[in-house]
């Protein structure tokens, strides 16, 4: 049923809870796990200068060790968990709008299932902060399993 499972991750505890679900499902189906870290350029645009932002959008993370380390740590966590179950992992880092890049990744990599975390915000907090999970649910045509971090605590 599932051959390729995508886990969008930002390295947070919420994402890590989703990783556990994704790896469990992948182990049952012998699926390949894909870890995607998206550098959210919208949220960074206020704190970085245009030159740095342009560098990130072009994928030149090597010069920005903090961003690269965070991305490597997040996708590495997914890979380590998958490896514990004998699963293959593909790690990928991009920059842009997370929900758009998740949608693109699903379409271009034949992903069968997306497993991602949510902070479980509601009301005004969700409206102000936006929700990558919600936007992903609206745009991705493949099944999306959303893991609520409040259930994992």
Q: Which sheet architecture does the biggest sheet show? A: 5 strands, parallel
* Fraction in beta strands: 15-25%
State the assembly state of the protein chains: single chain
Shape: globular
Distance between the ends:
29 Å
Q: Count helical runs.
A: 8
Number of strands: 5
Strand order of the largest sheet: 3-2-1-4-5
Mean pLDDT: 84
Bin the helical content.
40-55%
Structural class of the secondary structure composition? alpha/beta
Instruction: Pick out the low-confidence regions.
Output: none
SSE ordering:
EHEHHHEHEHHEH
Could you give a short description of this structure?
The chain is α/β, with parallel strands linked by helices and 153 residues long. It has helices spanning 13-29, 41-44, 50-57, 65-84, 98-108, 123-129, 132-139, 149-152; strands at residues 4-8, 32-40, 89-96, 113-118, 144-148. The chain is globular and about 45 Å long.
Question: How would you describe this protein?
Answer:
There is one protein chain. With 153 residues, this protein is of the alpha/beta class. It contains eight helices and five strands; from the N terminus they run E-H-E-H-H-H-E-H-E-H-H-E-H. The chain has helices at residues 13-29, 41-44, 50-57, 65-84, 98-108, 123-129, 132-139, 149-152; strands spanning 4-8, 32-40, 89-96, 113-118, 144-148. The chain has a five-stranded parallel β-sheet with strand order 3-2-1-4-5, with helices on both faces. Helix 5 packs parallel to helix 7. The radius of gyration is 15 Å and the shape is globular. The model has no long low-confidence stretch (mean pLDDT 84).
């Amino acid at each position: 049923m599932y051959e390729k499972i995508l886990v969008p991750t930002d390295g947070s505890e919420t994402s890590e809870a989703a990783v556990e679900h994704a790896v469990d499902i992948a182990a049952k189906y012998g699926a390949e796990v894909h870890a995607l870290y998206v550098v959210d350029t919208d949220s960074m645009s206020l704190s970085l200068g245009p030159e740095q932002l342009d560098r990130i959008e072009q994928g030149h993370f090597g010069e920005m060790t903090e961003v690269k380390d965070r991305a490597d740590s997040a996708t590495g966590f997914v890979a380590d968990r998958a490896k514990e179950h004998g699963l293959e992992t593909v790690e990928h880092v991009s920059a842009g709008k997370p929900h758009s890049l998740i949608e693109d990744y699903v379409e271009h990599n034949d992903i069968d299932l997306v497993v991602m975390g949510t902070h479980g915000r509601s009301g005004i907090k969700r409206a102000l902060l936006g929700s990558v999970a919600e936007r992903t649910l609206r745009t991705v045509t493949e099944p999306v399993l959303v893991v609520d971090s409040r259930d994992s605590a």
